[in-house]
């Protein structure tokens, strides 16, 4: 893997909110710690992970519950027909564009999840164990998930992918021998379930420490400090 490619991938992960994983990739390549096979495996895992995370972020930023409600869907279908005839007013074109962007991004993620069942950060087996179901925005007026079900599925998928990214970066950072390990190998070392419990246990420890060091500190402030420390330690 070239330094330029490593830096590009690292930047992609940093933009996805996983700067530690991106820095790990760049540092490992520049220090020459991995062999060719290890670099290729790590390359693929990080590319898949960055792409999956960006797709999830795109859906999150464009999703509105009403997009999955039948009245708005019927209205958007009518706007689409008007657009084909060139009679859609300018002030309605932006709304149709945003709706179409969400449907496109959601459909792409559905197709990719069906094809991959992993996303680079998590193994297919872990997805099944974590109860991840593919959010379905549908193609027509009446198909797909309702807004609440779609949000629940999406949140679970987002959480598991984020945990997988953090788990992989954490293990690779903790031991240089893990630098070129595949996601499957890292999953055997520490399944998502165990990593989640480790994070939660550490959060409880940190909460006690923060409260001990700062008696009387309001609970919301304690929670913010714990979140900051967990992000610093695990990259979540």
Give descriptors for this structure.
mainly alpha, disordered N terminus, 2 domains, 236 residues, globular
Structural notes for this entry:
With 236 residues, the protein is an all-alpha fold. The protein has helices at 3-15, 19-31, 36-62, 70-84, 90-116, 124-129, 147-174, 183-189, 192-213, 219-234. It has two domains: 3-190, no CATH class; 191-236, no CATH class. α3 (36-62) runs antiparallel to α7 (147-174) and α4 crosses α5.
Specify the structural class: mainly alpha
| Strand residue percentage | under 5%
Through-space gap between termini: 26 Å
Task: State mean pLDDT (0 to 100 scale).
Answer: 79
Major sheet: none
Number of strands: 0
Query: How many structurally independent domains?
Result: 2
Rg, Cα atoms, Å: 21 Å
Given as residue ranges, the uncertain stretches (5+ residues, pLDDT < 50) are 1-16, 28-34
**Helix-strand pattern:** HHHHHHHHHH
| Helicity range | over 70%
Shape estimate: globular
What is the count of DSSP helices, taking H or I runs of 4+ residues?
A: 10
Give a nutshell description of this structure:
This protein is mostly helical.
Question: What order do the helices and strands come in, and which of them pair?
Answer:
Layout: H1 3-15, H2 19-31, H3 36-62, H4 70-84, H5 90-116, H6 124-129, H7 147-174, H8 183-189, H9 192-213, H10 219-234
């Amino acid at each position: 893997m070239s330094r330029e490619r490593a830096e590009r991938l690292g930047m992609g992960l940093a933009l996805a909110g996983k700067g530690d994983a991106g820095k790990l990739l760049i540092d490992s390549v520049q220090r020459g710690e991995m062999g060719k096979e290890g670099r290729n495996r790590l390359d693929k895992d990080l590319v898949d992970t960055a792409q999956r995370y960006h797709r999830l972020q795109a859906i999150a930023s464009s999703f509105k519950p009403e997009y999955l409600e039948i009245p708005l869907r019927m209205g958007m279908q009518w706007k689409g027909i008007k657009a084909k005839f060139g009679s859609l007013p300018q002030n309605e074109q932006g709304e149709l564009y945003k709706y179409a962007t969400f449907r496109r991004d959601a459909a792409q993620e559905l197709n990719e999840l069906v094809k991959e069942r992993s996303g680079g950060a998590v193994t297919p087996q872990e997805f099944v164990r974590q109860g991840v179901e593919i959010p379905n925005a549908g193609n027509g007026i009446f198909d797909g998930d309702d807004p609440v079900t779609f949000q629940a599925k999406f949140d679970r998928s987002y959480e598991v992918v984020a945990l997988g990214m953090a788990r992989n970066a954490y293990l690779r950072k903790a031991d240089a021998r893990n630098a070129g390990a595949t996601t499957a190998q890292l999953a055997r070392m520490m399944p998502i379930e165990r990593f989640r419990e480790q994070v939660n246990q550490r959060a409880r420890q940190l909460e006690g420490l923060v409260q001990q060091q700062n008696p009387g500190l309001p609970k919301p402030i304690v929670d913010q400090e714990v979140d900051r420390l967990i992000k610093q330690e695990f990259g979540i």
